[in-house]
Amino acid sequence: MVSREHVKKTMMRGARRRVLVLASSLSSLLAFGGVVAPSAHAGTVREGQWYLETMQAERMWEKTTGKGITVAVLDSGVRSSQPELQGKVLPGKSYVLGGEDDGREASDLHGTAMSALIAGGGQSDMQVKGLAPGVRILPVKMKMGLGDTSPIADGIRYAADSDAKIISMSIGSDAASVDDKHKAQLQRAVDYAVKRGKLLFAAVGNEGSRTNIASYPAATRGVVGVSAVDTRLRTGKFSTHGPQVALSAPGVDIPTVCEGKTGYCRGRGTSHATALASASAALVWSLHPKWTGNQVLRVLLDTAGRPPHGKVPSEYVGYGLIRPRENVLENKGDPGPPDVNPLVAAAEKSGKSSGKSATPTAPVTHEPAGVTGKKSKAKGKDDNLPWFIGGAIAVAVPGAVLVALMVRRARRKARVRRQQAQQSQQSAVAAGPYGSTAPMDPPYPQQPPQPPLPPHGGGRPPGGS
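^ thats the sequence. predicted structure below, dont judge the formating
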């Protein structure tokens, strides 16, 4: 005969199991719907900048902060009143039709966000700390029409004639929308800048999980095309891949300046990676002020974390993950000849008229974007989610209601999958001036899956001595 005490213990164990199942189901529902619950512990913007620790930024800042280097940011303008950037933004130029400002009035916060990633002062933990906080920013403001890259070409020439050593371009138009005339115009502007000793970085785009179409100016010979990796150092599935990729940098779960209650968001995109690659170059160049842009680039390629296997350059990460600490802290990397651009030399050696491919590759087959049921944000922006600061939200849902919600959500997901499968057969969607985006639907596997990049690279970059 079973005792009352045994029955009571059994019932209590069953109740505990039901509570655990309910909690687990609730957690699954939140993830299933793409909802991010605020952390139970207070968090800060600075704590969210995971890449600073990964790149050993604190140690590098003991030797250099990028002081003496100016980075020209071709974007939507830079808000000079942004707390992180006060006193860091120089008078620049606006190529917006009818605009007469000097680039320090932002049409939106994209350029301001990218500039903060490069040079943000981060005076408090609630502000963005730039990877190269000693850098000054030269804003070159523009608003491109689809396929019209004339403002970019003009902006590159303006920056080439300025004191800026690095030109950072978290912008682009896809290959399908850029005609031969504009491609040639961009190439002439880039060639001019390279001859003037400038180092140019550009976002390869966020179409990797959809059309994977090449973007300009990243696909212009002489420009360092930058792809994005996540916290596991794996290529973000949204990151466009192809021969235009030269380097990769952190570009997922990056705290940035944005509109909203807190003023900060968690973003992703090759735009973010480009800003951090530009800042990396500034750190190295500041430490070696007598080097040319070609030498700085060669060292960055030489010290990059190589893919563990497969050919180099890889179409996903190029010559590897950018690692300025290898030079700043360990003095690694051979600068080589001062007058040879390694990427241009590699393109000429291959016998091609351009070191980039203007032909879009076929989309990678994988689960269509948008299966969470959320619509992508407007084209031309990198994805941002509100950066929640502190506060836990207690949620209690009766078991029956929870099950009903989960069933409804599953049906909705299946319906969206069918719709997305049909949409994936349609023609490619042209990218906006800042590249198009896919919704935040972690995890971000590589396409196809590859091991994470190693902490140490090897081999020689192209065009070296």
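The longest strand covers residues 70-75.
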